[in-house]
Amino acid sequence: MIKKEINAHITAALKEDGYQNDLTAKLVDNNSIVTAKIIAKESFYIYGLNWMKAVFLKVDKNLKISVKVKDGSYVKNKTVIARISGKSRSILKAERTVLNYLQTMSGVYDNCMKYRKKISSKKGIKILHTRKTIPLMRLPLSEACSAAGCMPHRYSLSDGILLKENHLKVIDNLEEIIFKAKKTNKVIVEAKSLSFARKIIKLGVDRILLDNFTPKQIKLFLKDSKKQKIEVSGSINLDNIKQYAIDGVNFISIGSLTKNIISKDISLLIE
Fold it and tell me: More exposed terminus of the chain, fewer Cβ within 10 Å: N or C?
């Protein structure tokens, strides 16, 4: 059984693609039986195989699916990922939705692995993904990130308190607000300047988010922070992440993990 949320997501994706009224597939003999293969057309870390299987079986529970690799494994160019046997119509109806999930989730997972490898020597620093996702795609994208070891900063607005720049502009008594909020939730406060970050230390928040700080500024702040949990974010990429993986930093959050996605090249071919 797949999770109810995943099933609902897949149902919506198939409905969006109009699979029940595939005008082209209707031209194919309904009794036609074939075997198709899903093949990698480049080398990458793959993820989303359970979603792939769920889509096929949602379209036709009688399809036979033989998966040749494991989620999270590194597949080389021309690797056969899976073979699917059954009605031609069913395979053709499911094709695009299957590939959309598999290409996108693999792209996200592969990118997360690249980031983690860049700072693999920094065992105490965790990479986080954010809510910067394609609308209605947070579930599969967040799953791919988490599977690769990049956990969510917050999955949704209901997962914790994060006081950001705009919140701070409309809050009058910050100290009182934080004191009350800490009784029921973890509180993270975003800081845009060294002076404000130093002020927040005194309020006993769970984490301070240093946004768009330079590595030099982060090091200056860490001299004052002692046991304070620290997160850094803003303009961090594969080229500069090592500069931000500073001893004393606990988390690095990267919006591009779920926003700037480079899908992987995967094809389905009838044999």
Answer: N
Q: Give the closest residue to 47 by CA, choosing from 126, 133, 111, 130.
A: 111
Q: pTM of this prediction?
A: 0.94
**Euclidean distance between the first and the last CA atom of the chain, given in angstroms as a whole number:** 30
Q: How far apart are CA 189 and CA 130, in angstroms?
A: 15
Contact 228, 208 (CB under 8 A): yes
What element of type H or E holds 44?
Answer: strand 44-45
Residue intervals of the chain classified under CATH 3.90.1170.20 are 4-110+262-270
Q: From 76, 99, 95, 77, select the one nearest 34 (Cα to Cα).
A: 95
Its CATH architecture, for the domain 4-110+262-270, is Alpha-Beta Complex (3.90)
| Nearest residue to 89 via CA among 51, 54, 56 | 56
Tokens 């792209």 belong to residue: 107
- Compute the mean pLDDT over every residue in the chain, rounded to the nearest whole number: 95
Domain 151-253 has CATH 3.20.20.70: yes
DSSP line for 139-151: HHHHHHHHHTT-E
Question: Is residue 1 over pLDDT 50?
Answer: no
Share of the chain above pLDDT 90, in %: 94
* Residues carrying CATH 3.20.20.70, the chain: 151-253
List pLDDT tens digits, range 111-123. Answer: 999 999 999 999 8
| Residue 42 CB partners (closer than 8 Å, separation 6+) | 77, 264, 265
